[in-house]
């Protein structure tokens, strides 16, 4: 009889221990799921680039923008890069190519022509000229 009672007592205690361990495991899983839901999509971060003119110069500014769950946004300037003028007619910057036009009247084979040249001056000192228009005058 003692053996039977002791075996029954051991079985009941094993069932109690395994059920309490299982309940604790389920509780931990629920807490992990809640933490994942709270951390997910709490802050959304993206970058945005825009063109800005400051004192007659053109800049590309890149911002890092954070959007929080409550709708609040913060922006942080990451970089500002000056955009160089590529057209070539900016007199303030000596590093660009300068282009000008010149019209001359010439005689060729006994006829009079009005010739327009495009004169390009490079920053290394080289100069090129090219005929743009030739009209009989």
Task: Going across the biggest sheet, name each strand in turn.
Answer: 1-2-3
Helix content percent band: 25-40%
Low-pLDDT stretches: none
The chain-level mean pLDDT equals 79
| Shape category | rod-shaped
Annotation field: number of helices:
1
Order of helices and strands: HEEEEEE
Provide a quick synopsis of the model.
This protein is of the alpha+beta class.
Could you please describe the fold and organization of this structure?
The chain is α+β, with helices and mostly antiparallel strands. Helix content is 28%, strand content 48%. It contains one helix and six strands, in the order H-E-E-E-E-E-E. The chain has one helix at residues 2-39, and strands at 43-54, 57-68, 73-82, 98-108, 111-121, 127-136. Strand 1 (43-54) and strand 2 form a beta hairpin. 0% of the residues are buried. The mean pLDDT is 79.
What keywords describe this structure?
rod-shaped, 137 residues, 3-stranded antiparallel β-sheet, 6 strands, 1 helix, alpha+beta
Give the arrangement of secondary structure elements:
Blueprint: H1 2-39, E1 43-54, E2 57-68, E3 73-82, E4 98-108, E5 111-121, E6 127-136
Antiparallel strand pairs: 1-2, 2-3, 4-5, 5-6
């Amino acid at each position: 009889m003692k053996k039977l009672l002791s075996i029954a007592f051991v079985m009941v205690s094993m069932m109690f221990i395994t059920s309490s361990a299982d309940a604790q495991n389920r509780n931990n899983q629920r807490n992990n799921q809640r933490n994942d839901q709270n951390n997910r999509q709490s802050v959304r971060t993206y970058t945005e680039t825009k063109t800005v003119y400051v004192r007659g110069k053109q800049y590309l500014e890149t911002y890092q923008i954070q959007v929080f769950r409550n709708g609040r946004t913060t922006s942080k300037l990451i970089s500002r890069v000056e955009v160089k003028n590529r057209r070539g007619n900016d007199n303030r910057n000596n590093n660009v190519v300068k282009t000008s036009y010149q019209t001359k009247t010439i005689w060729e084979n006994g006829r009079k022509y009005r010739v327009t040249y495009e004169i390009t001056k490079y920053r290394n000192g080289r100069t090129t000229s090219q005929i743009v228009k030739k009209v009989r005058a």
